[in-house]
């Protein structure tokens, strides 16, 4: 399936470069480009794209407000933030506004395709760096009293599924997990799908928080006793 994408960025050179890059990537069709948030909202209403790649700092209507309006008025369109900034002041407002993906502009074509595919499949399209920061924020209340590791994995997880979950909690991507366990990417994906189904998880962010909560992994910055 080809994903129909609108690109929103106020810098013409950057916007045209992203459009050119996306035109070379498999599974993506650029159907429009916008120079600010107002135009992004208008094009979403006119074109009904699958995904908007959204910059954050734009005139008239910034990316956070445009994301909020798109997700409220056009819930069939997902938003993936593509920005220079990965600090808390930009990351969390964008996710709270409804963005399902967040990439920085040093992302390569494969990362963009993967993020688009992830959000369209119902997962979160987060870069590893952003994912780790998000999960550190989620884990902050857990650090003071991390639960003891259970005698056996919860929710019927197998030993290999638990091992995969621990590596997910360390921020490893599927290819990195595959190399670590000496298995194929398809096998890793199968394990992740199985453990998501057993534990009732929707995406990797929930999976990592689940691992912390059940004592299957240690949050960043916590000490192991």
Automatic annotation (TrEMBL):
Residues 150-215 form the HTH luxR-type domain. One of its GO terms (biological process) is regulation of DNA-templated transcription. SMART domains: HTH_LUXR, REC. PROSITE patterns: HTH_LUXR_1, HTH_LUXR_2, RESPONSE_REGULATORY. Pfam families: GerE, Response_reg. GO terms for molecular function: DNA binding. CDD domains: LuxR_C_like, REC_NarL-like. Residues 4-120 form the Response regulatory domain. This is DNA-binding response regulator. It comes from Streptomyces paromomycinus.
